[in-house]
Design a protein that fits this description.
Cofactor: [4Fe-4S] cluster
Enzyme class: lyase
Oligomer: single chain
Domain HhH-GPD: 38-186
EC number: 4.2.99.18
Helix content: 55-70%
Shape: elongated
Pfam family, one: EndIII_4Fe-2S
């Protein structure tokens, strides 16, 4: 089968195991933006533990600007790079209030202008927050599995995303990412992938290759 047929089969099989949805907890696009910024180099489980309290204390972008930076830093201290992320969240809040009336922008171009927001974060906000498929979320799991599936050899994630966008049906861009992320966490791990347990082992070009 060619790459497009392979992807359709992968999506079909992984849907029998996982629900294609984001693992981060949020109730609106602003919370999703905050959670996604926090999630860089940090597990979603850790982010959800932190945001459970954070989102009760900070309801709106204004709330993040009402407290000293040091207080916000303490509230997210268990997150990697918490100082940089606290500054970025406050800077995003300021811009969103001043430029967008408190509403998180819903275009790739505008999101990429926000501090701490690259294509991965923007794609998450657009797909999970606004239901827009403007690109494919390429995190460490999507990167790893795409290479194991021989879908792309690109090391640059933006270029890898462009390769994937050419072969994954647009209506499946978000689902593709979330399903691969779930499978990467549970089965197709970075070290010692569980090929013997994998539902894709009969079609995966990297199955059982150490």
């Amino acid at each position: 089968m060619d790459k497009k047929e392979f992807i359709i089969e992968v999506l079909k099989r992984l849907r029998t195991l996982y629900e294609p949805k984001i693992a981060l907890n949020f109730s609106n696009p602003w919370e999703l933006l905050v959670a996604t910024i926090l999630s860089a180099q940090t597990t979603d489980e850790r982010v959800n533990m932190v945001t459970e309290k954070l989102f009760k204390k900070y309801k709106t972008p204004e709330d993040y600007l009402k407290v000293p930076l040091e207080e916000l830093e303490q509230d997210i201290k268990s997150i990697n790079y918490y100082r940089t992320k606290a500054k970025n969240i406050r800077a995003c809040a300021q811009i969103i209030l001043e430029k967008y009336g408190g509403k998180v922008p819903d275009t790739m171009e505008e999101l990429l202008k926000l501090p701490g927001v690259a294509r991965k974060t923007a794609n998450v906000v657009l797909s999970a927050g606004y239901g827009k498929n403007e690109g494919i979320v390429v995190d460490t799991h999507v990167d790893r599995l795409s290479k194991r599936f021989n879908l792309s050899k690109e090391k640059n994630r933006d270029k890898l995303e462009q390769d994937l966008m050419k072969i994954v049906p647009r209506e499946e861009w978000a689902n593709f990412s979330y399903l691969l992320i779930h499978h990467g966490r549970n089965v197709c791990k970075a070290k010692n992938p569980k090929c013997d347990e994998c539902i894709l082992n009969d079609i995966c070009p990297s199955a059982f290759i150490k």
